């Protein structure tokens, strides 16, 4: 896996952007970096059922990607409170609980199987179609900016409760 430099300054810029100052930070952060910061911050904006609690937040990805590389670098700086697992590189049973599960792809069977294997994972992907496949959150572009799209119906099945701060910055999927 190639290594990309990801500095805390870049993380700070992205956090500033997430807090409502997009004009200062937008041009300095790539879409992949911003998605990695969102993935890292999601556990701070959600509550898991007691069955899924643990000392460290488990961040899992389904395959190598730039988003995974950036996320891994952020997590390397917080090894006691977070753990990064690339499911394509490790024994899938190694991660008993994935709190954040980034699914790189649009395969309904994969999303359904991952939801069964990791029932307390917040499944996150890209594009509107991902939530229609059973995913909980998806990154979408709105006015040329990355935003989370949330399927409240899919999130409710897991017992995860999303906080108002996350709902306030997100789009909500239209559900039947």
Describe the structure.
The chain has 176 residues and is α/β, with parallel strands linked by helices. It is built from eight helices and nine strands. A seven-stranded mixed sheet has the order 3-2-4-5-6-7-9, sandwiched between helices. Strand 5 (122-126), helix 6 and strand 6 form a beta-alpha-beta unit. Helix 1 (8-18) packs across helix 3 and helix 3 (31-41) crosses helix 4. The longest helix has 11 residues, at 8-18. It is globular, with a radius of gyration of 15 Å. It starts with 7 loop residues before the first helix and ends with a strand.
Provide tags for this entry:
single chain, 176 residues, disordered N terminus, globular, alpha/beta, 36% helix, two-stranded antiparallel sheet
Summarize the structure.
By secondary structure, this protein is of the alpha/beta class. The chain is 36% helix and 20% strand.
| Number of strand segments | 9
Overall form: globular
Query: pLDDT average, as an integer?
Result: 83
The helix content, as a percent range, equals: 25-40%
Describe the main β-sheet briefly.
Answer: 7 strands, mixed
- Could you give the order of the helices and strands? HHHEEHEEHEHEEHEHE
The radius of gyration over CA amounts to 15 Å
Find the structural class using helix and strand composition.
Answer: alpha/beta
Q: Provide the β-strand percentage band.
A: 15-25%
Distance between the termini: 41 Å
Low-confidence stretches at least 5 residues in length (pLDDT < 50)? 1-6, 8-13
Strands ordered across the widest β-sheet: 3-2-4-5-6-7-9
* Number of helices, where a helix is a run of at least 4 consecutive DSSP H or I residues: 8
